[in-house]
Amino acid sequence: MSTLQAIRGMNDILPDASPVWQYLEGQVKAVLDQYGYREIRMPVVEPTALFERGVGEHTDIVEKEMYTFDDRGGDSLTLRPEGTAGCVRAALQNGLLHNQVQRLWYQGPMFRYERPQKGRYRQFYQIGAETFGIATPDVDAELILLTARMLDNLGLTEHVTLNLNTLGSSEARGRYRKALVDYLETVKDKLDADSQNRLYSNPMRILDSKSESTQALLDDAPTFDDYLDDESREHFETLCRLLDKAGINYTINPRLVRGLDYYSRTVFEWITDSLGAQGTVCGGGRYDGLVPMLGGKPTPAAGFALGIERLILMLETLNKIPASVFNTVDAYVIMAGSAAEEAGMALAEQLRSDVPGLRVQSHCGGGSFKSQMKKADKSGARIALILGEQEVQDRTVGIKFLREEKEQQSIGWDELSKAIQELI
Ligand code: HAM
C-alpha cells in the first residue's frame, strides 16, 4: 500500500526544527507581554460569510484562495485565511468591545490556496495583534514600535525596511478610486491581464501590481495625495512624527495598498530582500470600518500579523539563531546493569524535583555503556551522569563533561542535586 502524504503546501514541523519555532514564538510573545497585549484563541474554522464580508469579496483571498466546504449540516464553512475577521467576530460575540479598549494577540495556522513556493504555503502560521477602541495614531505607532522591537530582538533590524502609507477615509478612497479608474480606462489595453480583471472590482490593488509595464503606466495616474482628507492627513503626519521621535526608519510608499479590503488610513509592511519573492514578513494597518461591517458599533481598530515561516527563513538564511536554542537536554543519565537502572530512574526523578528547569534525559532501552555514551553525546547534553555497578555499591554518580575539558567527578547521591545546581 502506498503511504499517504501531507497535502501540498502543508508542512510538518519536525522536532529538529521546533526549537527554532519555540525560540521565535517565545521572543515575539515576550515583546507582546511587554506592551500589555493579552492572548485570544479563536477557532480555525469560521462561517464563510465572515471572510466574504470582512476580507472583501473582490480580494484574491476570497475569490480564489479560501478552503471552503459545506459541513454535514449544509453550512458553508471556511478554514481561516487570516485572523483579523475571526478576532473581531470573537470580540463582538463575547462583548469585549463595549466601551473598552482591547489589546489582543493570537497565533496559529492560517490557510490559503496559493501556489506553494519558498516562503509561501497553504497552511502557514501567523502571530497577530489587534487593538480596539483607540482612534488616535499613537496606537498605530505602538503597533509599529512593537514589531520593530521584536525584529530588533531577533537581530533582523538591518535586514528589513518599513513601508508605510495611508489609504485615507473611505470617502476619500471612493473619490480617488473613481479618478484612478477614469485614468486606467484610457490605458486599459496596455495593462497586464490581472490588472485588467481588477479594473472595476478592485482597482486600488492595481497600484501594487508586480507588472513593470503596469507600474510604468501608473507613473501618470492621479496620486492619492491629492484626494486625501484632512483628518487622515493629520493622522498620518502625527504617526510619522511619533516614529521619527522613536528613531524608526520608514519609507513612505504611496503604492502600498495591501491585499485585504478592510483597511483605512494607516497601512504598513516590513519587507526584506533576503528571502526572494516572498519578502513581506509582517503586514498590518488600521481598519476602523470592519467592526460595524461585521455588525458591531463603530469601533476604531488597528493591528498586524507576521508570518512565522518567513521570519524563520530569515533567521536561518542570515545565521541569526543562537546555538543555545538547539540545546534541549542538560544531563543524560547512563546506567549499566539492572541495579543501576533502578537507582538511575529514582535519581533522575529526584533531580527533576530538586532542580527547577533542569532537563534530564534518562537512557531507556538498555545497551552497552559505549552505545549509551554515544546517545548521550548526540542528545546535546552538557553532562552525562554515569551509574555502573560500582557506583551503585558506593552510592555515587560519575559526572562526565561532554562539551568541555574537565576531569570526571564522582559525587555522592545525597549531594548530587546541590552539585548539579551549582554546575548548570
Ligand atoms: P497578510 O498580509 O495577508 O495580513 O498576512 C500577514 C503575513 O502573513 C504576511 O506578511 C506574511 O508574512 C504571512 N503570510 C501571508 N500569506 C502567507 C503564505 N501563503 N505563506 C506564508 N506566509 C504567509 C493579514 O493576514 C492581516 N490579517 C494582518 C492584519 C492584522 N491587519 C490588521 N490586523
TrEMBL record:
<dbReference type="InterPro" id="IPR004516">
    <property type="entry name" value="HisRS/HisZ"/>
</dbReference>
<dbReference type="InterPro" id="IPR041715">
    <property type="entry name" value="HisRS-like_core"/>
</dbReference>
<dbReference type="GO" id="GO:0005737">
    <property type="term" value="C:cytoplasm"/>
</dbReference>
<dbReference type="GO" id="GO:0004821">
    <property type="term" value="F:histidine-tRNA ligase activity"/>
</dbReference>
<keyword id="KW-0436">Ligase</keyword>
<feature type="binding site">
    <location>
        <position position="258"/>
    </location>
    <ligand>
        <name>L-histidine</name>
    </ligand>
</feature>
<keyword id="KW-0547">Nucleotide-binding</keyword>
<keyword id="KW-0648">Protein biosynthesis</keyword>
<dbReference type="InterPro" id="IPR004154">
    <property type="entry name" value="Anticodon-bd"/>
</dbReference>
<keyword id="KW-0067">ATP-binding</keyword>
<feature type="binding site">
    <location>
        <begin position="82"/>
        <end position="84"/>
    </location>
    <ligand>
        <name>L-histidine</name>
    </ligand>
</feature>
<comment type="subunit">
    <text>Homodimer.</text>
</comment>
<dbReference type="Pfam" id="PF03129">
    <property type="entry name" value="HGTP_anticodon"/>
</dbReference>
<dbReference type="Pfam" id="PF13393">
    <property type="entry name" value="tRNA-synt_His"/>
</dbReference>
<dbReference type="InterPro" id="IPR045864">
    <property type="entry name" value="aa-tRNA-synth_II/BPL/LPL"/>
</dbReference>
<dbReference type="InterPro" id="IPR033656">
    <property type="entry name" value="HisRS_anticodon"/>
</dbReference>
<dbReference type="InterPro" id="IPR006195">
    <property type="entry name" value="aa-tRNA-synth_II"/>
</dbReference>
<dbReference type="InterPro" id="IPR036621">
    <property type="entry name" value="Anticodon-bd_dom_sf"/>
</dbReference>
<dbReference type="GO" id="GO:0006427">
    <property type="term" value="P:histidyl-tRNA aminoacylation"/>
</dbReference>
<feature type="binding site">
    <location>
        <begin position="262"/>
        <end position="263"/>
    </location>
    <ligand>
        <name>L-histidine</name>
    </ligand>
</feature>
<keyword id="KW-0963">Cytoplasm</keyword>
<dbReference type="InterPro" id="IPR015807">
    <property type="entry name" value="His-tRNA-ligase"/>
</dbReference>
<feature type="domain" description="Aminoacyl-transfer RNA synthetases class-II family profile">
    <location>
        <begin position="1"/>
        <end position="356"/>
    </location>
</feature>
<protein>
    <recommendedName>
        <fullName>Histidine--tRNA ligase</fullName>
        <ecNumber>6.1.1.21</ecNumber>
    </recommendedName>
</protein>
<feature type="binding site">
    <location>
        <position position="126"/>
    </location>
    <ligand>
        <name>L-histidine</name>
    </ligand>
</feature>
<keyword id="KW-0030">Aminoacyl-tRNA synthetase</keyword>
<feature type="binding site">
    <location>
        <position position="112"/>
    </location>
    <ligand>
        <name>L-histidine</name>
    </ligand>
</feature>
<comment type="similarity">
    <text>Belongs to the class-II aminoacyl-tRNA synthetase family.</text>
</comment>
<dbReference type="GO" id="GO:0005524">
    <property type="term" value="F:ATP binding"/>
</dbReference>
<feature type="binding site">
    <location>
        <position position="130"/>
    </location>
    <ligand>
        <name>L-histidine</name>
    </ligand>
</feature>
